[in-house]
Structures are given as C-alpha cells and as structure tokens.
Design goal:
Blueprint (H helix, E strand, L loop, with lengths): L3 E8 L2 E7 L9 H8 L9 E6 L7 E6 L5 E2 L3 H15 L3 E6 L2 E9 L2 E8 L34 E5 L3 E6 L8 H9 L9 E9 L2 E8 L3 E2 L4 H13 L6 E6 L2 E7 L4 E7 L1 E8 L1 H4 L2
C-alpha cells in the first residue's frame, strides 16, 4: 500500500485518525491498525475512523477500529468529528452517518459544536449483552455486582451502540483506572467485553465521569460513555434526563429524549493532516 492521507481530529481530547476510503482502498489489517495506533512509532489515536461509501442512503458509512486492531460498534465523539467533515464538504447543517450500530443523524449546533443522535439506549440484559446468571435467570441491568469489583458497589449496564458498565462512586478522581479497568472490561460478565465508567454525581444536572474504553484503555473522553452515564444516572434516580457530563477532556451535554434516543452535543477540532507512510504500513 502506498502512503495513505489522513486527518487527525479530536473531541475533547478523544483523538482520532480519520481516513477517507470512498475513492481509494483504505482497509488495514489488525497489525497495521496497531502500528498506526502506536503513540511513539506511529501516529496514535483512540479510534481509527474510515469514511466509506454509504450503504443505505446516508452520507457515508463509518468503520471504527481500536488501537488493538479490534472493531468497535460506536464512537460518539468520532461520529461528531466525521459529521463536521461531511457537513462542511456538502454545505449542509445535517448529515446521516451509517455505522455498525445504526444510522446516526448529526446536526451543526453552532460555535464549532456538533449534536449526534446516538439512537435508543438499550437496557435489556441480552442487548448489553450480559452473561445470564448461573441458574439461567436474566441479569438485572439496573444494579448488578461484578466479581472482583465489589468495592465499587453495583454497576448499571447500558448499551449505546456498544456495552457500558457504569459505577457511581464518591470520588471518581480517586479510582485507579489503569489498575482496575482491564479486569472489569474482560470480566466473564461481559461476553463482548465492556467500556467501564466511574461517575460522581456533582449536582442533579452535572456528573463527573472517567472512563476505561474497551480496546483503547484510558481516554480523555468517551461520547457513548457519557450517554450511558446519563442514562444510568437517570435510571437510578440520581439525575433527570438531561445533564452535563464532565470528562477528563471537558464537558458534553447529554439528553435522554422521551422517545428513548440519546443526544450528545460537544465541540470538534482538527489537529493536523498528513500521510501514513508506506513504511509504517509495511507490517
């Protein structure tokens, strides 16, 4: 493969390598995704986003890969970044992006911000998915214990395109994410692994969240995680259905609409553009 043009973007520090694969081959191997994701020898990213031709009438299809080479189903901040590129390209204030998780409608919210409808929050144990109890009973997604993580209390599970487990703790800043995140992500409770959020309620309309992302580790922000956090908090009676979720990289505005869909609004930014050298991809 020759050099591959890319754009480096981020939403609140949640950073992405974005490649336009609509006019040229852009599919990489797992080893190539890992090479590009190396922050010392490659470019580094939280997710690798490939813009592909639309399949069902949207503006484009977006493929999402993690730094470990695995594929992700949803990426809220990345969707907002790609939406900003596509809206600028088309001269429109709205765009629909197709993903594995479904069709996501994005709109220009002004002042460099983009709103994305992340679709409905899925709450059933088999939609997360969670492993059934030993007796075959359905797991309770509102409040359940994860073996090895009992010190954090019960978790609440939400699927926002991908699985999330949300813990409400007195001080999210005190949690050693690097130490506890991997074990919870890979718990047998989660057949497809999970993103892990630790959350402190600051006010009825303000939450502090830190995240360990499935396949990526600690990130500055996670859009689908912020959505899952608001849904979990509302289900637990800790907030209403609209709140600001403060991540390491900054705040996102989240609204769990009456129709069950979750909207997220936040800023997007372009850092630089470049070319992935053929030598980097020769792995």
């Amino acid at each position: 493969m020759d050099g591959l043009p890319f754009t480096k973007m981020h939403g609140l520090g949640n950073d992405f390598v974005v490649v336009d694969g609509r006019a040229m081959p852009a599919a990489l191997s797992p080893a190539q995704y890992r090479a590009v994701g190396d922050r010392r020898r490659g470019v580094g990213y939280d997710q690798f986003l490939t813009i592909l031709p639309a399949r069902n009438g949207g503006a484009a299809y977006m493929a999402i890969h993690n730094p470990d080479g695995s594929e992700a189903q949803a990426c809220g901040n990345g969707t907002r970044c790609v939406a900003s590129l596509l809206m600028r390209e088309a001269g429109t204030a709205e765009v629909a992006i197709e993903t594995v998780a479904g069709r996501l409608v994005c709109t220009d919210a002004g002042d460099g911000r983009v709103t994305v409808d992340m679709g409905p929050a899925r709450l059933g144990w088999d939609e997360i998915p969670l492993a059934p109890a030993e007796d075959g009973a359905e797991a309770d997604t509102l409040s359940f214990e994860i073996p090895g993580a009992e010190a954090f209390g019960p978790a609440t599970a939400v699927n926002i395109g991908n699985p999330h487990a949300v813990f409400f703790v007195p001080d999210a800043e005190a949690v050693e994410l690097a130490a506890v995140g991997p074990g919870i992500e890979h718990s047998p409770v989660f057949p497809e692994r999970a993103n892990i959020e630790f959350v402190t309620v600051l006010a009825p309309d303000r939450l502090r969240m830190r995240v360990w992302e499935r396949g990526a580790g600690i990130t500055q922000a996670c859009g689908s995680g912020a959505c899952a956090t608001l849904v979990a908090a509302a289900r637990r009676g800790l907030t209403g259905r609209r709140a600001t979720v403060v991540l390491d990289g900054g705040p996102l505005e989240i609204w769990w609409r009456p129709d069950g869909h979750v909207e997220m609004t936040g800023p997007v930014a372009t850092s630089f553009a470049g070319i992935l050298d053929a030598d980097l991809l020769a792995v």
